Amino acid sequence: MRILAKNSSACRQYAAEELQKYIRKISNCDLLPEIEYVEELPTEIPEDAIVLGLLSELTLDESDLFDPFMEDILDVRVENARGIIAGSNERSILAAVYQYCKSAGCRFLRPGTDGEYIPYCDLTSHKCHYRKKADHPFRGECCEGAISYEHMRDTVYWMPKVGMNMYMIEGLVPYSYMNRWYAHKANRALTGKDIEYDALEPLIDQLEEDIVKTGIQLHTIGHGWMFENLGIHHELYAREQEIFDALPEEKKNYIAMVNGKRDIFAKSTFFTHFCYSNPDARKSLVDFCVDYVTKKPWVDYLHVWLADYINNNCECENCVKMHPSDWYVTLLNEIDAALEAINAKTRLVFIMYNDTVRPPEKCKLNNPERFVLLAAIGQHYETGYLNEAYTGEIPPYVRNQNVTPQNALRLHWHREWKKLCGGVPSIIFEYRFYTDQYCDPGHMRIARETHRDMKGLENVSFQGCMSDQTHRMYLPTSLPMLLMGETLFDKNLDFEAYVCDYFTAAFGEDGARVREYLEKVSQYFCPANLRGSAKNAVEDTGINSRENKAPIHNNPYVAEQLAKLPALLEEFAPVIRHGMSDTDPARRQSFVYLHYHAEICRHLAKIYHLAALGQLEEAQAALDPLERYLSGIEPQVHEAFDLFLFDRFVRGTLRLKSIK
Questions:
Q1: Most CB contacts within 10 A, which of 105, 142, 164, 267?
Q2: Alpha helices, DSSP H only, in 70-187?
Q3: What residues does 222 pair with on adjacent strands?
Q4: How far apart are CA 74 and CA 61, in angstroms?
Q5: Strands 127-133 and 426-430
Q6: Per-residue pLDDT reduced to its tens digit, 371-413
Q7: Is 270 helix (H, G, I), strand (E, B) or coil?
Q8: pTM to 2 decimals?
Q9: What are the residues whose beta carbons fall under 8 Å from the beta carbon of 259, sequence distance 6 or more?
Q10: Do 402 and 312 form a contact (C-beta atoms < 8 A)?
Q11: In degrees rounded to 5, what are phi and psi of residue 179?
């Protein structure tokens, strides 16, 4: 048997190698295909071959393809280990390879080799005919939490297997997130020190190579780039201030004037605006973007975000002449013109966020074809994305006195932004799996919410979702993440059928019992009430006061529900112990994670039950044993569980200071 492909890129070579690897695994090496790289793909499919290529190369239907840079079409026509596997672009060829594997029974349960369930299939009598254009062109993650290079790498290689097609590296180096991991910020049992910025740069270079290898869209930067041409990386606050203080006065004038002073705001360049009316300041930003794109032409989407703070725009006599969004569009047009001058293909992403939620009043994008709009809407996950018409008055703009708008007004402004920008595609920026998943330790409620909201994105005029989140949320299950990726790809995904298939693949013959157990865990932890108690969850999900549920504190109903958990955990323990001896490594690992999860739930049930009884000090004291336990088991669960973000969330529910 042969696999025929062009060897014109790392992605094509990787797709061929992945197909070869999985055919061998699926067939228990009954089939041992060899890869042949050819200059031109054959017009007739040989009897002993699977051919990999673009739709155009294999003369397949492209009538519904309008932008191959952005849109993904998978086309698989394989019978008895002979046929074609094709895509609208190179990443789609790779995704189509995985679709063929899934048709043969493979399930990619979570990142890493211990997340692959691969049953035997006689491929010589197996048939897969599948063609599908992704319903949303943007389906991906942005790094957050506490992360290592390996966590990001494993996420990148998993994404094409589960319907996702883009990854964002926030910042030139996501220093804060990586430093949390390498310095062991939340682990009591491990000692660490802050890592040097320079030590992380080679790791990000390698990660970019990994992303290019998979062919998925590479999105970069966002916040934390504007001070690079002034010689300041976004890293440790003290170093940023020291370098800034040594700058010449004309360079300090690039920085926003707030309350009569030009200085780093809130101790971080991450939070600091430029003086956008200053042409020299804007040129510094434009020059950086040109230099960056010149050095990294493989970057598909450059995110040009401003400061990660609100109500601290420049108050100088020139900046006050226009709205912040008008100055923002002015800057975007200058960056676009400079990229056009060097024939750069990189597209630009601008953001509706904080002061730029309100659309511009005077300026428009000159070249909308280069741009994508990113919108941090932040609706409450209890209700989903409500496409409510905004009927109120538009509040007047008062510089640096913005109030977070209602969701209906946000969505109104989102529509206005799109009209002003020639109908550019837009992506919703989600925080669903930042800490909100910890409101639902059973994962079953958020699984339903995720499926509902990804299915309904079109109703609020979005073309996809960028999920700003931990890469380690697979304890107890990966179901919510899988539903995000697969439903973004296919909005008609049947929830019940998919969930049943998932639990069978992940837990075998006990899959239905595991689901029933986790449904009860979700119920007894009262997710809506936890959302009302946790500072991070409230901020990240945009809960309005009128939507708040009663928090867990002093709550008899929550106390009653939590009191049921110890018996449930005890009753289900034998099923977990039995599953931990499963002969399939992926299923065995699923039960191992369920074992650790049950112990975490025992601690949480006690902590939250005390809070629900009104015994907050006792609840706070009960957190100590849980933090010690988690610090001890982190080496065993770190690929599936983000200790830093979990601890931040739980401390928020208990009104304790979070670890920085």
A1: 164
A2: 90-103, 149-158, 175-182
A3: 304
A4: 11
A5: unpaired
A6: 999 998 766 788 888 888 899 999 999 999 988 888 889 999 9
A7: helix
A8: 0.96
A9: 315
A10: no
A11: -65, -35
